[in-house]
Amino acid sequence: MTYENLDAKLVNALLDDGRASLRSLAEDLDVSVTTVSNHLSDLEEEGIIEGYTPQVNYDRLGYDVTAIIQLKVEGSALPEITDRLREEKRMVSVYEVTGEFDVLAVGKFRDTDEMNDGIKSLLTHADIKESNTSVVLNAASESEQFELDVAE
Fold first, then answer.
1. Which residues, 6 or more positions from 6, have their beta carbon under 8 angstroms from its beta carbon?
2. DSSP helix/strand/coil, 94
């Protein structure tokens, strides 16, 4: 096999099974274990693969309330607010965005009381000018990753 597209194929194989052994990856990609190991190390060093984590089903752990929180923030306070949100353990995603609001955060909570308490605590910050919270009724797709295109 040529090594053309090997990195993309390796990433795709790991997306399929993040716990695959080097040996099984090498067999699937028809290359040596050393080649897989070297390419994997390069992908990690380049920051393309940032880590290996389990996919947690928060609903099954009792975190069945997902909230999308939009915030208008005083311009100079934006880094402080996003840092504070990132440190909140219930926030699974925090984005600086364009449009009417400046920040969009996604949080997971055990119930609406916990969500309400968390949001009220956040809104005590003087530089948050406005907020809008939506509760997710159904997650049609969540935390999905996609396979890389591989030229054949």
1. 29, 31, 35, 39
2. strand
Are 72 and 130 in contact by the 8 Å Cβ rule? The answer is yes
Q: Please give the share of the chain, as a percent, with pLDDT higher than 90.
A: 80
Range of the domain at 84: 59-135
Give the H/E segment covering residue 109.
strand 103-109
Q: What CATH number corresponds to the domain at position 20?
A: 1.10.10
Q: How far is CA 8 from CA 34, 40, 42, 101, in A?
A: 17, 11, 12, 36
Residues 120, 77: one domain?
yes
Task: Give the number of domains in the chain.
Answer: 2
Do 82 and 25 fall within a single domain? no
The mean predicted confidence, pLDDT, of the chain is 93
pLDDT tens digit string along 107-130?
999 999 999 999 999 899 999 999
**Tokens found for residue 149:** 């295109």
> Do 37 and 102 fall into the same domain?
no
Higher-confidence residue of 85 and 143: namely: 85
pTM of structure = 0.81
SS (H, E, C) 27-74: HHHCCCHHHHHHHHHHHHHCCCCCCCCCCCCCHHHCCCEEEEEEEEEC
